[in-house]
Amino acid sequence: MNDNSSALVLLRKALEINQKAFGPSHPNLGGTCLSIGAAYNSMGDHVNALSYSEKALDILQQTLSPHHHLLAAILNNIGFAHQGLRNYSTALSYYQKALTIQQQCLPPDHTDMAGAYNNMGGCKLSVGEVDEAISYFKKALAIRQKCLHPLHPSMALVYRSMACAYIEKGDYSNAQLFLMKTIEIFQRIPQSNNDDLADIYNQMGNTYQKMENYTDALIFYRKELNIRKKNLPPDHLDHDGICIHVGRKQLVTKENSNAQRSSQTTFEMNEKSYQQAYRSVAIVYKNMGLACTKNKDYSNAHAFYQKTLELEEKFTPPDDYELSVTYSGLGTLHMALAEYSTSLSFFQKSLEIREKIFPAKHPKILKPYSNLAVLYKCMKNYSAALSFFQKALETDSNNSFENQLIRINVYSHLRDIYRLMGDNGMAMLYAQLVVNSSEDRK
C-alpha cells in the first residue's frame, strides 16, 4: 500500500468519527474532505477527488471568509480534478477563482500563486494553446525564481512544464535547456523518483531525435533503459537484453490460507507493476529502433524492434496503441530496405489497430494513412497513393507541431506524384500549399 492509500484509510476513518461526533456539516469535516480530495487527486482518482473537494467547499464556504486561503486550496483541488477529467475550460475557471483569492490574501510572490499559474498553463497546453501556456509558465517561473533556490525541487515542476510547452511548439533547443535543468535537480535529490528521471531522459532522447541527432538520442534512451530495467522483477531472464519474467504459481494450504491470500494479493499487485515495467522497457527499445532506422543503422534497428515485439506480444493487449506504433516503425524500416510487401503488412496491421480504437478521421489515423500512401508511391502505384494521401488530409487536424509537419510532407508527396503523372496544374497547387503551410508554421 503506497503512502496516499495509507493516508486515505486514516482520513476516511477520521471523517467517519467526526461525522458521528459533530454531524455532517461541521467545519471540522471540511478540512478532512479537503485532504481526502487531495489524496484522491494524487492517486489519479479524479472523480472521487471532485466529490470530496466539492463537499469541502460546501462546508467551509459557510463559515470562512470569501478570501480565505483554504477556499483557494479547495478551488485548486476542484480545478485539478477537472483537469484530470479533461474538462479543461472548467478547470481553468476554478484555477482563476483560486488565483483571485490568493492575490487578495497572500503576498504577491507567494509560491501558491506559482502553482496556480503552472496549472493554468497545463490546461492551455492540453488544448493546444501553446503560446498562452508558455505565458502562464513564465509567470510561475518568475515567482519561484524570486523565492526559491534554482535547484529547489519545486523548480523542477515548472522547468518541466516549460520543456513540454517548447516541445509542443517544436522549439527543441529551449526544451532541452529546461529538461537539463530538471535533470540537474533530480540528480541532486536523495531517493528521488527514478521513473520521473527516466521520463525526462525519454523526452531528451525524443528532442534529439526530432533534431535528427540520433547519436545523442540513443545516449539518453540508454540512460532511460538503465532505469526502466531496475523495475523489472528479480527473477527475469536476460537474453541479449531481452527480459522475460518467469511466473510463479502460489500454493494455498489450510494452515496458511490467510497468509497466502495476503501474499497472493501482493503477488498480483507486483505482477501488474511488472507488466507495466516490461511495457516501459519495450517503448524504450522501440524509440531506439526508430532512431537507428532514421540513422540508417538498419541492422540494429531491426534488433531493437524485435526486442520490442517480443515484450509487447507478451505484455500488451493485441489492440493496444503502442503495438500499432511498433508495427508502424517496422513498416518504415522495411520500406527503407525496399522490402515493400513486408512493409505493407506492418502498415496495414498498424492501421487496423488504430481504426479499432479511434473514431473515423481521428488525428492518430493520419500517420498510418500517410505511411501507406508513401509506400504505394515507392511501389509506383500512384492511384493507391493518391487515395491514402487524400484520406490523410481528411483526418481531423489537432494542429500539433508533428501533425503540421506530416501534412506539409503529404503536400510535398502529392506535388511530386502529380508531376510524375504529368498533371502540372495539380502539382503547382500542392507546391503552393507546401509554401503556405511552411510559412504558417513559422
TrEMBL record:
Keywords attached to this entry: Repeat, TPR repeat
Protein name in UniProt: Kinesin light chain
InterPro entries: TPR-like_helical_dom_sf, TPR_rpt
Organism: Adineta ricciae
Top-level lineage group: Eukaryota
Keyword Glycoprotein set for record: no
